[in-house]
């Protein structure tokens, strides 16, 4: 008899536990009933309802817009932030800045959300698109910094010396050596910020105002009125969307590697 | 005299109150191969970084072709560096690495192409243009680093222990190639190393450094044959260093005996140190030797035997001999007066040179 590998059983068990709720949700998105107590019959009706739900589509677009804009801004600010921390020669100051950055990472969303709310009201800023965007940028920056700093620390300082030695100005050192070197960290930071923004609920819930909602807030408010299967359909679509994203990222990576290998073969010939 | 390419005038460098360089005066002439030699932490790399412009001198003047360049940024200096760990750009391939400096200066594409090919040919890497850096061996990366620095056509090339990461055989090959390259291009090389063999093999002139000072400068032969003090004698090659006393000019007393030597110009009965290089000691029959020693151990080093022996007063003698002897055997040691080199305590380089000149003229 083949020996059972317990670590594999464990792994499969974990994955079932993680994915079962999602598939449960998706399964019922094809049910014709109006709740999840028993599957009635197969239907696309929930999806059709979703696509004519103008409000829902608008919210999806708004959420994506916030995610893209906030992660772009956070990536730019975070990149320069990471560079700033890296360039800080004074150990004490650098560790302090880094600690301040990390505290933002670990502090509860509720606290961050509440403080933003107080801050924006204090400034007299209207709550809505602007306040949500600003707060998303703010909580994404530490993530970006944390993704980029290891790449910077991994870079040998001699590379910067070498670039300057060969005649590069400060700007050229940055654009031709440092940024290309840390580009993978920048991309990782961008995607992390993107996903954080997409699924943020707590902070958004605090700082959003009338007439502006993101997906998570909308789903929450609908779920309170008893979840409709339209939500299931939406979840299914988002799941497929993220699958496509992951697959796309994977394929892109593979193609890059294949290209590199081809260049290698060509050079070797 | 020709104007030096690079000149240091009493250059001092301090980090947090610690003096790394304690008043360096050196001059590098055009087209020569110079070596800064010293143990790690002696400040030799700091000198290189000051010339390259990565760090500033705390005091003193740094001149380049007669112009003060203390505050000139690194990217405006006609100096290029080959780094210890090569510092090649991992996101660029070989061609792009070598072309980096030329691209920055907006040189025409066709010119860049020609210059990169030429630089790679100089370091014998023609045909490697499209390789990634990660695909190259350590020796090849080393050559790319040299090509990248040379493609910029610097007036002075700085090399920061560039051979230390290579294995023995490759290092020897690269020594020949570097020397050859320097002579063909006719530009000034400043090479930093802690390896005395490397320094002796390649240089026109060596600066021996310790603790932030240049102790002695001169041709490899001068420094090897006439070390100025204990440190230099010990650092450059192996040697027997014994306490002695100058009885008179050309007459020294050590291990209780008097010997003829080739040095003069010291006070009578001045305490000195005597250097005898192990390869200058010949093993002869006991009755023909100026000294009698007992062989303790001998190691076969390939091209010679390294023999340790002790004399009657238990002084240790190191002898290099092409022929083996027997452990425990009594042998005689013979050496010529020219093989006996005398070092005074605390003599400065100027005094040392002046003294040597004074009696060498007499001869």
UniProtKB/TrEMBL annotation, chain A:
List the record's Gene Ontology CC terms alphabetically: plasma membrane
> Which membrane topology term applies here?
Multi-pass membrane protein
Could you tell me the Gene Ontology terms of the biological process aspect for this record? transmembrane transport
UniProt domain ABC transmembrane type-1: residue ranges = 60-252
Q: Where in the cell is it found?
A: Cell membrane
UniProt key word Secreted: no
Q: Which residues cross the membrane?
A: 9-30, 59-86, 98-123, 129-149, 178-198, 231-252
Q: Which UniProt keywords apply?
A: Cell membrane, Membrane, Transmembrane, Transmembrane helix, Transport
Pfam family for this entry, one? BPD_transp_1
The record's annotation in Gene3D superfamilies points to: MetI-like
Q: Which family does it belong to?
A: Belongs to the binding-protein-dependent transport system permease family. CysTW subfamily.
Please identify the protein, giving its name as recorded: Binding--dependent transport system inner membrane component family protein
Q: Which organism is it from?
A: Latilactobacillus graminis DSM 20719
TrEMBL record, chain B:
| PROSITE patterns per record | ABC_TRANSPORTER_1 (PS00211), ABC_TRANSPORTER_2 (PS50893)
Q: Which Pfam families match?
A: ABC_tran, TOBE_2
GO terms, molecular function: ABC-type putrescine transporter activity; ATP binding; ATP hydrolysis activity
List the InterPro entries: AAA+_ATPase, ABC_SmlMolc_Importer, ABC_transporter-like_ATP-bd, ABC_transporter-like_CS, Mo/tungstate-bd_C_term_dom, P-loop_NTPase, PotA-like, PotA_ATP-bd
Keyword annotations: ATP-binding, Cell membrane, Membrane, Nucleotide-binding, Translocase, Transport
**Broadest EC class?**
translocase
- Taxonomic superkingdom: Bacteria
Q: Which GO terms describe its cellular component?
A: ATP-binding cassette (ABC) transporter complex
Q: Please report the stretch or stretches of sequence annotated as the ABC transporter domain.
A: 6-236
Q: What is its EC number?
A: 7.6.2.11
The reaction(s) annotated as catalysed by this protein in its Swiss-Prot or TrEMBL entry are:
ATP + H2O + polyamine-[polyamine-binding protein]Side 1 = ADP + phosphate + polyamineSide 2 + [polyamine-binding protein]Side 1
The family classification in the record reads: Belongs to the ABC transporter superfamily. Spermidine/putrescine importer (TC 3.A.1.11.1) family.
Q: How does it assemble?
A: The complex is composed of two ATP-binding proteins (PotA), two transmembrane proteins (PotB and PotC) and a solute-binding protein (PotD).
- Please report the name of this protein according to its UniProt entry: Spermidine/putrescine import ATP-binding protein PotA
Lineage here is: Bacteria, Bacillati, Bacillota, Bacilli, Lactobacillales
> What gene does this protein come from?
potA
């Amino acid at each position: 008899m083949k020996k059972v590998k317990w670590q594999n059983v464990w792994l499969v068990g974990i994955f079932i536990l993680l994915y079962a709720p999602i598939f449960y949700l998706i399964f019922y998105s094809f049910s014709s009933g109006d709740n999840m107590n028993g599957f009635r019959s197969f239907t696309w009706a929930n999806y059709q309802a979703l696509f004519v739900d103008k409000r829902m589509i608008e919210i999806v677009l708004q959420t994506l817009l916030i995610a893209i804009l906030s992660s772009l801004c956070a990536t730019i600010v975070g990149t320069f932030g990471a560079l700033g921390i890296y360039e800080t020669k004074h150990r004490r100051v650098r560790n302090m800045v880094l600690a301040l950055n990390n505290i933002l990472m670990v502090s509860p969303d509720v606290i961050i959300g509440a403080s933003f709310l107080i801050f924006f009201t204090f400034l007299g800023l209207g709550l809505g698109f602007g306040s949500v965007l600003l707060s998303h940028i703010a909580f994404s920056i530490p993530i970006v910094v944390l993704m980029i700093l290891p790449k910077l620390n991994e870079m040998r300082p001699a590379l910067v010396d070498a670039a300057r030695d060969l005649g590069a100005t400060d700007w050229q050192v940055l654009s031709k050596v440092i940024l290309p070197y840390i580009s993978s960290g920048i991309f990782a930071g961008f995607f992390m910020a993107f996903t954080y923004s997409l699924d943020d609920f707590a902070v958004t819930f605090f700082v959003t105002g009338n007439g502006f909602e993101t997906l998570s807030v909308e789903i929450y408010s609908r779920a309170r009125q008893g979840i409709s299967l339209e939500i299931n359909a939406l979840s299914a679509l988002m799941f497929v969307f993220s699958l496509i994203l992951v697959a796309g990222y994977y394929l892109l990576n593979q193609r890059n590697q294949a290209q590199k290998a081809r260049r290698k073969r060509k050079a070797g010939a | 005299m020709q104007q030096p390419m690079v000149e240091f005038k009493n250059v001092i460098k301090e980090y947090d109150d610690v003096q790394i360089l304690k008043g360096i005066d050196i001059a590098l002439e055009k087209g020569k191969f110079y070596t800064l030699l010293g143990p790690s932490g002696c400040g030799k790399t700091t000198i290189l970084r000051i010339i390259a412009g990565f760090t500033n001198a705390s005091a003193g003047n740094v001149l380049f072709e007669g112009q003060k360049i203390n505050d000139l940024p690194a990217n405006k200096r006609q100096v290029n560096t080959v780094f210890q760990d090569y510092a090649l750009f991992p996101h660029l391939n070989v061609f792009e690495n070598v072309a980096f400096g030329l691209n920055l200066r907006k040189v025409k594409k066709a010119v860049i192409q020609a210059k990169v090919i030429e630089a790679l040919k100089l370091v014998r890497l023609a045909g490697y243009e499209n390789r990634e850096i990660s695909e190259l061996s350590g020796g090849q990366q080393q050559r790319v680093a040299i090509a990248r620095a040379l493609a910029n056509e610097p007036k002075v090339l700085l090399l920061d222990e560039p051979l230390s990461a290579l294995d023995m055989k490759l290092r020897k090959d690269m020594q020949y190639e570097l020397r050859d390259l320097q002579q063909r291009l006719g530009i000034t090389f400043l090479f930093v190393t802690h390896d005395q063999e490397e320094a002796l093999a390649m240089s026109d002139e060596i600066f021996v450094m310790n603790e932030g000072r240049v102790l002695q400068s001169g041709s490899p032969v001068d420094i090897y044959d006439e070390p100025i003090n204990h440190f230099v004698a010990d650092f450059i090659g192996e040697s027997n260093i014994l306490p002695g006393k100058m009885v008179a000019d050309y007459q020294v007393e050590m291990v209780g005996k008097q010997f003829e030597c080739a040095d003069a110009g010291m006070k009578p009965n001045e305490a000195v140190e005597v250097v005898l290089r192990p390869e200058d000691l010949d093993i002869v029959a006991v009755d023909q030797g100026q000294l009698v020693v007992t062989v303790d151990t001998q190691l076969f080093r390939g091209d010679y035997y390294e023999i340790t022996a002790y004399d009657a007063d238990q002084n240790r003698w190191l002898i290099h001999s092409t022929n083996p002897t027997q452990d425990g055997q009594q042998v005689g040691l013979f050496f010529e007066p020219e093989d006996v080199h005398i070092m005074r305590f605390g003599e400065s380089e100027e005094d040392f040179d002046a003294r040597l000149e004074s009696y060498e003229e007499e001869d």
